[in-house]
Amino acid sequence: MTQEPVGMQVSEQRHWDRLMQMARLGAIPGDGVNRAALTDLDHQARRLLLSWALPLGLAPSVDALGNLFLRHEGTDPSLPAILTGSHMDSQPKGGRFDGIWGVLAALEAVQAIREAGLTTKRSIEIVAWTNEEGGRFAPGCMGSMAFSGFRPPETWDEVQDRDGMRFGEELARLLAAEADIPRRPLGFTPFAYVEPHIEQGPLLEAEGLDIGVVTGIQGSRWFVVEIAGKTDHAGTAPLSLRQDAVQDMVRAIAALNALTADPEDVLRFTVGRVEVFPNSSNTVADLARFSIDLRHPDAAVLTARGDAVAATVEAAMTKCRATVTETFHALPARFDPMVQDAIEAASRELGLKPKRMPSGAFHDAQFLVPLCPTGMIFIPSRGGISHHPAEYSSPAQVAQGAAVLARVLRRLADS
Ligand code: GLV
Ligand code: MN
Ligand code: MN
Ligand code: MN
User: How far is it, in rounded angstroms, from Cα 228 to Cα 195?
Assistant: First the structure.
């Protein structure tokens, strides 16, 4: 048990048990989780969350993007609510904590407040955002982007997963399965948003610290590149006559490596997804498609390098045609000093050691920044490992994060 001087008590055992129960939905070898957005497993995870939240008296609702809310009513329900939570979907080879910890920490924090018999002036809404990871339907953060008005909700209806399922269809299937949950309009202006998340990096552990007070998030741009060539026979077609999409893709990626080279090692450039068609050993490919994930904390650098991507790819083509589509563009985000101060103060009151730090990963929180004071709470990740089955934070660490959140929520909800 993590003891709170004000009587709030986070249950380490209950919190950990819930995390481990959730991890069974989509369990993969090596303690990992594969629970992609809008799959049956995602539906089941949401039902499991409801099975814990409803007996507590939290009121559920769902919006047009499938963002799921659980409301703790304040003594003045007319005031803007505090919003807190994260996402429940995972990477295809993900861990047991990325995303889901933030949702369950929010539940644990609100449960601690209610079990202590405390009331709050403002309401607190727990949120589980739809499709943060973007592993099945790219890009990520669709739920929070639509909620904040950053993109219209129908933006991604035609996006397909690897099996040709459309995002719009899968979203409709979720909403039909949850027809018993009250629908709410998309978007509102919270009083503040606080997202708990695992660090996904090595700094807190390496420095022996407990809590990351997140100062902001670096910017990201995602692109999809399609290179169109012509199929041919691998044994008979002379190289000089081919339009080989794979060969031009390799040139394009080499040119992009040069474009994104950074002696300071701050810029992040990733080609994480490559598809080749028809994907046959003895056929020259007529289509190659790959993803680009580009990140930098400085908006000027991100803009300059990102704006050069299309021309760099085109210049690398010898025989094929390239199309470059930008699917995601999030500027660097800066979190609110008031929320940062509240997180730091709560950590110190609990005897925990906080550190102010930026986030290299993107999060739903960056789309809340234009709406309301926003912040994030990090807890250590063992070995800095994330987007990997070995992702781990200890029972004590997750409970400490939830205890910090409970204090922050109380403070904000009474202000
Ligand atoms: C989110 O998972 C990210 O890629 O930062
Ligand atoms: Mn995450
Ligand atoms: Mn993730
Ligand atoms: Mn993420």
Answer: 42
